[in-house]
Amino acid sequence: MDNKTILKQLKLQAALMELHDENSFKIRGYQNAVFNLDKTDIELGNLSLAELEKIDGIGKSIAANINEINQRGVSTALEEYLKNTPEGIVELLDMKGIGPKKIKVLWKELGIESGHELKEAANSGLVAKLKGFGEKTQQTIINALEFKEANANKLHYAEAEKLAEIVIAEILEIAPDIKIEVTGALRRKMEIIEVIDLIVGTDDIEIIEDALDDAENFEQVIEESGPITWRGNYKALRIPIQLSFCEKEDFVKEQFLRTGSNLHLSLEVKDKLTLKDIVRQQNFTSEKEIYAAAGLGEIVPEMREGTFEIEAAKNGNLPELVEMKDLKGILHNHSTYSDGKHSLEQMAQHCKDLGYEYLGICDHSKSAFYANGLKEDRVIQQHEEIDRLNEKLAPFKIFKGIESDILYDGQLDYNDDVLASFDFIVASVHSILNMNIEKATQRLLTAIENPYTTILGHPTGRLLLRREGYPIDHKMVIDHCAKHNVVIEINANPWRLDLDWRWVHYALEQGVKLAINPDAHEMDGYQHMYYGLLAGRKGGLTANMTFNVLNVEEIGKYFAERKQKITVNG
Ligand SMILES: [Zn+2]
Ligand SMILES: [Zn+2]
């Protein structure tokens, strides 16, 4: 069994144990095991019971539990808890902001056994009356349930992209003569995907429909399908699959019409005509030809949103978008010093192996106690190790950074002497995420004014499909970054993609540079650079406005000069 599945089961078991009032010592054992194993590199699925028992922080009974998961896919203990818990209650356990203890009260005292029942109880005010709940918790519950409802059956882009590849490969296997590609929001690389949207060029729709009927992984939903559309599911996954059929010779045109947003296709481009009009006038063999017929340069699929790209194309101002090969280094990453999975040396070596010139290490700062944030003495210790590694790995360079928590009032959480010991600082909010827009914005503005802040990290704290970000006035924040020469991060983690691409164009107009940062907590995390790149490109990000296209000398010089200004001014 893979680690992810094992951990998911242990985590669920810990929550269920809490729900069923088990011994708190035992519960903590499971929670600690999950915490420790989450950071391990060891493939738990390959270990024998004796080997599992030797892992630090795992007792005999948890080792036996994991062993059973390896053998038969699930442990008897978990099965037993699940048997004694209504399904709806199990689902409620992964609701944000409400722990198992509260869920137990809702279950036992109000007899709630599903999200639907909980929503009714909360809307009628019953929840607020429970001991330990109150109006605020009730509202949190309503928000969380609504958020969950709105996001059921959706995927973030990275997952959707992978799934689409699998689905396409499988369809090509059963119907090799077709032409099939992604289209719609998926082709526009939208951050959240509601349907795996595919366009199929075929000269015989029936053949492919019959083949899909016979394929066991595909299940058609007849009511939602039509004569040229197949809608259904793949392997019982919750996100729908949509296949739009067209003649092979119409493929370019049909894919084009299904890719651009409505706005993109219906803005006037030439002589009162829209792209929709132009594409229907004749047949085209490429999308480049379509744009040329409209007198425009080719607009890449990810930019076809109808925001600013048509105007830019009309004026001959289409941005030359940043590419993967432009990125010279990776800033904002974690190591085992705080909550990362791999050591500083592993993170650096891997970054170097991938061909990058530098790594910015930004472990959590001291307020982030839950993430083992660095107290001052450990900052010094890390800097000594960085100096040693820099000798060893030269000309590759590790820059000394920190992800400094932005405190409640916008202050960073070290004194100036410590702040001055870093090459650069990513300032991020990690706690008290429920401020109103005025307070949350002011908090960021204060952090941006701090002369030590180099980069503003994940500006809204959002986790796509899981948690809404705190509200901020994006314009004020971006304007303030422009004024104080602060770079804004596009956090490249597919769950974050924060700064949102919708604000990229505005940031660039204000002259604010953006850094594509993976916020990697393990070596594989560097792969997320690609998703950050896509988000940037979606908003029109060019290489010269991307902070980490600077090479190792340039960025070193930038950090040094910026720090020098602080000393001179202060
Ligand atoms: Zn962070
Ligand atoms: Zn981070």
Automatic annotation (TrEMBL):
Span of domain DNA-directed DNA polymerase X: 1-305
SMART domains: HhH1, POLIIIAc, POLXc
GO molecular function, one term: zinc ion binding
Residue span(s) of domain Helix-hairpin-helix DNA-binding motif class: 50-69, 90-109, 125-144
Transmembrane segments: none
Protein name as catalogued: DNA polymerase IV
Organism: Roseivirga seohaensis
A Gene Ontology term for the protein's cellular component: cytosol
This protein's UniProt keywords: DNA replication, DNA synthesis
UniProt domain Polymerase/histidinol phosphatase N-terminal: residue ranges: 329-408
GO terms (BP aspect): DNA repair
Entry-linked Pfam families: HHH_5 (PF14520), HHH_8 (PF14716), PHP (PF02811)
